Amino acid sequence: MSPISLDEHGRPEPPLAADEATMLLAYLDYHRATLEWKTAGLSPAGLATTVGRSTMTLGGLVAHLAYVEDSWVTWRLRGEPAPAPWDTMDWEADIDGDWHLAESLRPAQLRELWAASVQRSRAGIEAALSEDGLDAPVRRPWADGRAPTLRWVLVHLIEEYARHNGHADLLREQADGQVGE
To answer: What is the per-residue pLDDT across 135-148, written as a single tens digit (0 to 9) for each?
Structure first.
């Protein structure tokens, strides 16, 4: 296995050639690192910056992606109970509670929430890969009975991060002028 190469922003460069699982995980880690870079060093005001009429914030993105990690990997893929704080949220009262959670957390708490979610996801993905590989079905199928595979979940996570990292570019530039990729 070749050493991991980091780009100028500290993100791990995905390998040019690798097996499917390695490639998917490398791209997921690259996009996680992009979110980390785009939110690093910001004050509460910076994390609460919006663009135009949108209410989306970088803090909201971090909290939402923490929820995405836990929802897809911990809860749906592994079939485990939703961890805190998702287990006590009143989703009927606020369907966007994950986004709004950032308003009540300090930057360090927000980063800790996301880091813990990523750590749980890494462990859950590793366990699923060791059991059934990329074809491992989720343990909590959709309401209609269909059960996506780990492969589907990984592609979906990459898509979530890639889409929201585009938002993070705009929000970070609005917050403090930092631009890049």
So the answer is: 999 999 999 999 99
Query: What is d(CA 65, CA 32) in angstroms, rounded to the nearest whole number?
Result: 9
Token pair of 42, please? 């910001």
Residues 6+ apart with CB under 8 A from 114: 35, 62, 63, 65, 66, 69
Residue with tokens 């979906």: 156
Burial of 41 (0-12, 13-18, 19+ CB in 10 A): exposed
Q: How far apart are CA 44 and CA 57, in angstroms?
A: 11
Peptide bond before 85: cis, by omega within 30 degrees of 0? yes
Structure tokens at 75: 């809860």
The predicted-structure confidence for 158-171, as pLDDT tens digits, reads as follows 999 999 999 999 99
Terminal C-alpha separation, the chain:
28
pLDDT tens for 6-62 read: 989 989 999 999 999 999 999 999 999 999 999 999 999 999 999 999 999 999 999
Rounded CA separation 47/62 (Å): 9
